[in-house]
Structures are given as structure tokens and as C-alpha cells.
Design goal:
By secondary structure, the chain is mainly α. The chain is built from ten helices and six strands; from the N terminus they run ααβαααββααβββααα. The protein has helices at residues 2-14, 30-34, 47-51, 54-64, 68-83, 117-129, 136-152, 194-205, 208-217, 234-239; strands at residues 45-46, 96-97, 109-111, 153-154, 166-167, 169-171. The strands form three sheets. A two-stranded antiparallel sheet has the order 1-2. It has a two-stranded antiparallel ribbon with strand order 3-6. The radius of gyration is 20 Å and the shape is globular.
Length: 260
């Protein structure tokens, strides 16, 4: 029964790929479709919306034996691969992309947090799901993680000097040299997957250094299970509070006060 429902949902979502360039609609107007109106993919689309269905559609093809679902998302990821080294922060994709033209160079914000999270999270998992039949998803991840390690992960200042890593974001346009790219040191609850993502990929590639990095992101983090966002600034340090929406700035962050 659940499998049949999954097929029904998959068939419904599959119709959203019926666009001139086969890039998925994130808001499908079924009434317009019934009337024969051609719908085009969006010009400003969140990257996680268009890049996240890989895992579910692949598994649906595996279980059903119907290759349509995998074919649909594979075309999308081929475009992602083509654009990966053409963006303003080569190796990563911006939070917002132009899916209608397939040109991802017009936007400047880069993160693995909210609005981009599951795109990156699923890359090593998709490699595992496909049992390495294609190395594409491993390549996509390994290229992206170069900049993630350099410009997204950052080490915050803590009272006890714990060697931990949080995730920030980068805003970079085409005119900014790589040497001048700076990290905005934030940490969101939606990037809590990052340690597990790095650990899974490290086991796939047998990379001990990245496995140690994953431990710094998760096991050694004083917050333990990452239940809260930890966007704080110097004003929060005095009262020991962690208010969501703050930015990590200069000063020592008291990370032991996660429950206040």
C-alpha cells in the first residue's frame, strides 16, 4: 500500500519536469497543465528545491524498475555538474539559481545551511545508493568540499579552547578574487547534517583527515546533539544566551549555555 502511494506521488511529481528544458518546476500549476499551457522552470529558484529529489527519485526507480524517475533527476544533476566550476564560488552552487536558462552564475550567496542543505547532504548518500555505479556524485561532493573546508567551515573561539567546527556562509560576486573571499561565521540548525555528511564521504574515500574533521563538527562539539542554532554575538556572551538570528562575531563564545 505504501509503495503504491509512493508511485502515485512519484508520478504526480514527475509531471513537474514537463518543461522545455526538462528542469523541474518547483510550483506546478496543474490547472494550467490540464489546459495545455506550457510552463517554464523558474528564474530564481532555491538550489535545495531543485537539487534535492535525487535520493527519493533514484530509490523509486530502483524499487519500481521504472527508469523515468532517475532519468528526470539525472538530467538536473548533469546541469549542476556543468555549472559547478562556473559559479561565482567555483565548486559550490549559489543559494538561488536560474533554472530556466541553466546559468547559475548570476547569484552570489553560498552556504550549506538553509535553502541549500539537502543538495549537499545527498551527494555522498546518492553515491552509496547507486553503489558507485557512477562516480558523478562522488566527484560533485569532492569538488564542493574543497571550498566547504576552506570557506564554509570555521573554528569559533570558545572558553575552553575546544577544537570544533561550525558552518558559515560566503557572499562572493564575480569580481571578488578567491584570496579576498571571507567567511561570515554563522551556524544554523539546518546545517546539523554537515558532520555526518563529511563522515560518510570520508568512509567512502577512506580519508582519515576528513573523518577527523567530521568529529570536530559533531563529536567534540560541546552542544552534543545539535538541537539549536548558535548564532551569537558579543552582546549574547555577557548573558550566556544563544538567540537565533544573531551572528558570531569577535569575542569568546560560551557554548556551554545551550539550554538557556
Amino acid at each position: 500500500m505504501l509503495f503504491q502511494k509512493a508511485i502515485e506521488i512519484g508520478d504526480t511529481l514527475y509531471k513537474a519536469f514537463d518543461t522545455p528544458n526538462r528542469m523541474r518546476l518547483t510550483r506546478w500549476n496543474f490547472k494550467a497543465a490540464a489546459g495545455g499551457v506550457v510552463q517554464e522552470a523558474g528564474e530564481s529558484v532555491l538550489v535545495s528545491e531543485i537539487g534535492s529529489p535525487t535520493f527519493e527519485f533514484t530509490r523509486l526507480s530502483q524499487l519500481s524498475g521504472d527508469p523515468r524517475y532517475f532519468d528526470a533527476i539525472q538530467h538536473v544533476m548533469d546541469v549542476f555538474e556543468d555549472q559547478q566550476d562556473k559559479t561565482n564560488q567555483p565548486s559550490m552552487w549559489p543559494v538561488v539559481i536560474n533554472v530556466r536558462t541553466g546559468d547559475f552564475t548570476g547569484f552570489s550567496g553560498f552556504t550549506i545551511g538553509g535553502m541549500a542543505d539537502s543538495l549537499y547532504e545527498y551527494l555522498p548518500k546518492e553515491h552509496m545508493l547507486l553503489r558507485g555505479a557512477t562516480q558523478q556524485y562522488r566527484r560533485l561532493y569532492e569538488y564542493a568540499v574543497i571550498v566547504i573546508k576552506r570557506n564554509i567551515f570555521h573554528r569559533p573561539m570558545t572558553f575552553n579552547g575546544e577544537d570544533v567546527r561550525l558552518t558559515g556562509q560566503v557572499d562572493r560576486d564575480a569580481r571578488t578574487p578567491s584570496s579576498e573571499t571571507t567567511t561570515e561565521p554563522q551556524a544554523q540548525h539546518l546545517d546539523c547534517f554537515a558532520g555526518g555528511m563529511v563522515a560518510i564521504a570520508a568512509k567512502i574515500s577512506q580519508n582519515d583527515n576528513d573523518l577527523a574533521l567530521a568529529q570536530k563538527r559533531v563529536a567534540r562539539l560541546p552542544l552534543g546533539l545539535q538541537r539549536h542554532a548558535v548564532w551569537v554575538d558579543a552582546r549574547d556572551i555577557a548573558c550566556g544566551a544563544m538567540r537565533e538570528g544573531r551572528t558570531l562575531s569577535m569575542g569568546r563564545v560560551n557554548m556551554a549555555q545551550q539550554d538557556e
